[in-house]
Amino acid sequence: MNIPKLLITSGAVLIVIGLVWMVGGRFLNLGKLPGDIVVDKGNFKFYFPVVTCVVLSVVLSLVAYVVRWFMK
Length: 72
What we know:
By secondary structure, this protein is α+β, with helices and mostly antiparallel strands. It has one domain. It is built from two helices and two strands; from the N terminus they run αββα.
């Protein structure tokens, strides 16, 4: 296992996540995407972010794929 390569890759991934979080919050409306389930009745509010979970799953899977590719 190549520790320097792992540290550089982890740092790059964290920088990308930070930038996406900072910039994406303004442009991407994660948590309120079409397809997210919201039931609001009186004092009861139920929220289940179906599409947001799918989007995050795809992004994290791509990140894991890239990290595994760099680890070869």
